[in-house]
């Protein structure tokens, strides 16, 4: 069966077809189209690889670069029967790095405190809350994700760029998957290294990581649960960060498994603990932990090798403890140690950690339509 596509928007990125015939993989090289003339693409797919009723979409290599309509809205799945004539389609526009972003879905950004007191460290810290866009129009309770390095998460003007989590949460909300509260904790600037490591005096003296981890679990989380409509149970609570922020998030999850069940670990500084001798906390309870691991092949310090070794070590714990780990490891062959790449990975990690499914465009389109209707009623 032949699929032919005309793109109304000029774009040099390669085109892929994805659907219920390849598990909705948006960048399957087997299903890359060939440009037969300017902005016109084609692919022949063996009928034996296709189901009787076909659902599909076109992408430019990922869900952050999927087809959209001329107004930037999600398009429904394309549908065709295998015994129909060959398919001829048009695409109005394409997402570019998850954009465009719609203001009506942006999260509500609140400052919890300019100087939130940390009794464990005898310091204060600025802490933010990003609430779902319709938080004040609902009575729902929400899962929570605690993220390190708030300075680099969403505010413009960061020296290193930022994750744009406000924009990415708006995209997730548009797809009906934005019901998560984000708590963003600013780092301690000059004290960042001390607070994000446990006892590695080779790079810092007077490491304060254990005290910082206690602050998150024993002080900040109870406060957040008392102020916001959260789902306080561990199965709805996650923690994450990048680089040293990723490392301290690993320690947080392992030292407080009764608090966190989800770890979002981007480019962790595992070189500080090459033996992976993480503290094995009291495993009397059979905790399950979901771990989303991301790294780029251009990050240096053997990043991807250390990530794979870390996963293997943790999986080995399952035999000697009551722990059960579920890993999702994502390696970007072009990835560098930069906020831009963590920003691109953030929506995928949120979805896997909190929605427990791969992206299914059919389900997303249905949820998006529900969200659209709810928004029009607010």
UniProtKB/TrEMBL annotation:
Protein's organism: Kaistella antarctica
Keywords: Hydrolase
Domain of life, per lineage: Bacteria
Molecular function, one GO term: hydrolase activity
Protein name, UniProt field: Predicted hydrolase of the alpha/beta superfamily
Pfam family, one: Esterase
């Amino acid at each position: 069966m032949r699929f032919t596509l005309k793109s109304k928007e000029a774009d040099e990125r390669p085109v892929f077809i994805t659907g219920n015939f390849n598990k909705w993989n948006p960048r399957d090289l087997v299903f890359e189209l060939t440009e037969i003339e300017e902005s016109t693409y084609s692919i022949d797919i063996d009928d034996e690889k296709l189901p009787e009723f076909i659902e599909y979409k076109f992408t430019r290599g990922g869900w952050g670069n999927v087809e959209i309509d001329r107004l930037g809205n999600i398009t429904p799945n394309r549908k065709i029967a295998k015994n129909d004539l060959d398919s001829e389609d048009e695409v109005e526009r394409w997402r570019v790095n998850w954009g465009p972003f719609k203001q009506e879905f942006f999260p509500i950004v609140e400052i919890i405190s300019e100087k939130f007191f940390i009794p464990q460290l005898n310091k204060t810290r600025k802490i933010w809350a990003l609430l779902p866009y319709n938080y004040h129009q609902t009575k729902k309770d929400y899962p929570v994700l605690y993220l390190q390095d708030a300075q680099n998460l969403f505010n413009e003007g960061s020296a290193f760029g930022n994750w744009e989590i406000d924009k990415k949460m708006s995209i997730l909300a548009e797809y009906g998957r934005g019901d998560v509260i984000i708590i963003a904790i600013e780092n301690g600037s000059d004290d960042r290294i001390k607070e994000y490591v446990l006892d590695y005096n080779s790079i810092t003296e007077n490491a304060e990581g254990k005290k910082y981890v206690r602050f998150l679990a024993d002080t900040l989380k109870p406060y957040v649960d008392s102020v916001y409509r959260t789902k306080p149970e561990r199965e709805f609570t996650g923690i994450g960060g990048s680089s040293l922020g990723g490392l301290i998030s690993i320690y947080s999850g392992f030292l407080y498994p009764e608090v966190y069940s989800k770890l979002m670990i981007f480019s962790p500084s595992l070189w500080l603990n090459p033996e992976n001798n993480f503290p094995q906390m009291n495993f009397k309870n059979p905790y399950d932990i979901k771990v989303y691991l991301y790294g780029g092949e251009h990050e240096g310090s053997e990043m991807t090798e250390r990530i794979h070794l870390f996963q293997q070590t943790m999986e080995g714990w399952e035999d000697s403890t009551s722990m059960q780990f579920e890993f999702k490891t994502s390696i970007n062959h072009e990835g560098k140690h930069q906020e831009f790449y963590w920003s691109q990975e953030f929506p995928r990690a949120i979805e896997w950690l909190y929605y427990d499914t791969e992206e299914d465009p059919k389900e997303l389109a249905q949820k998006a339509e529900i969200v659209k209707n709810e928004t029009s009623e607010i």
